[in-house]
Amino acid sequence: MTAGRVAQVEPGQPAADATRPARRQPEPPHRRPRLWLARLDTKASPYLYIAPFFVLFAIFGAYPLGYTFWVSLHDWDLLAAEHPFVGFDNYSRLLGDGDFWNSVLNTLGIFVISTVPQLLLALWLAHLLNRQLRARTSFRMSILIPNITSTAAVAIVFGQLFSREFGMINWALDLVGIDAIDWRNTRFGAWVAISTMVDWRWTGYNALIFLAAMQSIPKDLYESAAIDGASPVRQFWSITVPMLRPTIVFCVIISTIGGLQLFTEPLLFNSGPNPIRGGPLRESQTMTMYMFENAFAPHFNFGYGSAIAWMLFALIVVISLINVLVIRRLGNSTRKQG
Amino acid sequence: MSIFPIYWMFVVATRSSDAMGQIPPPLTPGGNLPGNIERLFNNPDAYFLTGMINSAIVAGTVTFSVVLFSSLAGFAFAKLRFKGSNALLLVIIATMMVPTQLGVIPLYMLMSQLDWNDRLAAVIVPALVTGFGVFLMRQYASQAVSTELIEAARVDGCSTLRIYWNVVLPALRPAAAVLGLLTFMTMWNDFLWPYAVLNDPENPTVQLSLRALSNGYYNDMSQVFTGTALATLPLLIVFIIFGRQIIGGIMEGAVKA
């Protein structure tokens, strides 16, 4: 049908003129500017369509990004009248700042104990969902529901589940004979509680992505492996996991970026007079929280805060690279074995 | 496991605040919901109703504009030929990698200069179009929109804008729905940037209202949970109606990325 339409309007075909008199009627002087307009339209309009992104990105994305780096080279106290240039002083001060390293430790700790179980659990869930199950859609929906709930709501609800005196988790632990744990005021307790919130919200999302990738693995690979006598467990490790490698890399990197930026969960988990400190002894203050503490209330030091932001970015890049290298090596060794 | 905390949230929302201290914890709904809602809306610290309205304005505006601008740009990248398109697309993908944290401080300074602090514009304007949206639309458009149809329309004398409106946009509708839903959820749930830029307690988004509610020295937990439940309910309804499309969108987007 489309081909017919193209043929109809081909120049020099009288049949086309006959069927579309209205189009062909205008006189030559009118046609020339319209052609010129049409050419301008095809040449220029693509730029017009992509312009909103680039204009907004330039103002609210690129400019601020470069500007943070510039600010981080200054002693930029909001309340001071002048902002003297200090070079890399903010960065060297940061390297000797115990509270900064504490926040790095917390960020990495929470990141590791949330990401590792989360991705393993997601892989396992996806594996289960990949089999033919009844009510598959409702299963998929229920594992994704945590992801649509806001982080703030999750943090508030889990904050109650993990409360020391009346929390349901301590109550359940008590039933099996374990003493109540002070989730808020011990470092490891706070890490576990915050990791639980993160896992609860993101495991289903990762499982769905793994599931999508699993479904694109050719079925005959499994069939021939079964004929060769490979057990389901062996099939999982020798076919599914290696074939999923690009997707695993993708999920690991997404989780790294998200996990290292953690802010809302620890902030809302800590209530009271100074939640941005992450508990009385900074037990769960992440790097983003430390950035906020320095850049906004109470310190309002934009220069120091910007330096922290750049250190965070550097850490994300470094950890992502390490992840990719580790996964690549893991994949190679399984391939050699197989 | 995945449903229980949400279920429990709704249970506590319908009970009195004693429910939190009871052992064993109650697991069936009670009859206190109307009273909880009334106290929540009258809570002088939370401005909860304002928060809900503000979030609806922010999420609605941003969703409309992200879908419009992303589909226009996605169409251009997928189906129109122009110089530098590959390089520009690469720039867009690169912008997706940069963490938001890096931009918070300078963006805050920019907002101060524009005098937008404490205004919804500060939350809305920087989000009007996203690299993710453009990329998603381009991926979908390069498969779902037939090039022959576009060429036919062009030979018929359509301007590119008309082609976009009459040929491309209808074909993009499924992807536009997914992008719209994801954008709405993200904006409704966003915390970090509103927390940085909206400091006036009388003009919060709904997530900031929740924060104000739960941060008091004495907390009426049934009231707080009514707040979290009301803030979650719109998304839950949307998800139950459009769940299939959202899941499909996430799975498809992930495999192609």
Verbal overview:
- The complex is a heterodimer of chains A (338) and B (257).
- In chain A, 74% of the residues lie in helices and 0% in strands.
- Chain A is mostly helical and 338 residues long.
- In chain A, helix 6 packs parallel to helix 10 (187-215) and helix 7 crosses helix 10.
- With 257 residues, chain B is mainly alpha-helical.
- Chain B is built from 13 helices and no strands.
- Chain B has helices at 4-13, 33-42, 48-79, 85-95, 101-114, 121-124, 131-144, 147-155, 160-171, 173-189, 192-197, 206-214, 221-256.
- In chain B, helix 10 (173-189) packs antiparallel against helix 13 (221-256).
- The two termini of chain B are 29 Å apart.
- At the A-B interface, helix 1, helix 4, helix 7, helix 8 and helix 10 of A face helix 1, helix 3, helix 4, helix 5 and helix 8 of B.
Layout: helices, strands, pairs:
The complex is a heterodimer of chains A (338) and B (257).
Chain A: H1 2-8, H2 14-19, H3 21-24, H4 28-72, H5 89-95, H6 98-130, H7 136-148, H8 151-161, H9 168-175, H10 187-215, H11 219-227, H12 232-243, H13 245-260, H14 264-269, H15 287-295, H16 302-337
Chain B: H1 4-13, H2 33-42, H3 48-79, H4 85-95, H5 101-114, H6 121-124, H7 131-144, H8 147-155, H9 160-171, H10 173-189, H11 192-197, H12 206-214, H13 221-256
Helix pairs in contact in B: 1-13, 2-13, 3-7, 3-10, 3-12, 4-7, 8-9, 10-13, 12-13
